[in-house]
Amino acid sequence: METSARCCKHSQECNPSSEEAINAAYYAAIDKLNKRQSSPEAIQKIKDSGNLLNTNSTPEFNAYLEKIGYTPEDLDRLHIIHVAGTKGKGSTCAF
Fold first, then answer.
1. Where on the phi/psi map is residue 78: left (φ > 0), alpha (ψ -120 to 50), or beta?
2. Which pTM does this prediction carry?
3. Burial (CB count within 10 angstroms: exposed 0-12, middle 13-18, buried 19+), residue 7
4. Please, are residues 15 and 21 in contact by the beta-carbon 8 Å criterion?
C-alpha cells in the first residue's frame, strides 16, 4: 500500500518516492536531530577552546578524502545522517 507525504514546496501531496518528498523527509529528520545535539556545556567547552579541541582532525580527514579522490565539497552534496552510539541505533533509524 502506497502512502503519501506532504512536500515542503507544495501544498498538494507528493508520492513518497519522489525526490521532493525524500528531500522533505531528509530535512525534517535533520531538523529533529539538530534539536537533540550537544548539550550547552559541550557547546560552551568548544567555544572556550576557540574551536581547537582537536586541531588535527580536519586536516587528517581532508588528507584521507584526497587519497580516495574526494573533496569536502563532494561530501556537502550528500544527504547523510550518521547514527552513532552503543544503544538504540536500530530504533532511532526505524523512527
1. beta
2. 0.33
3. buried
4. yes
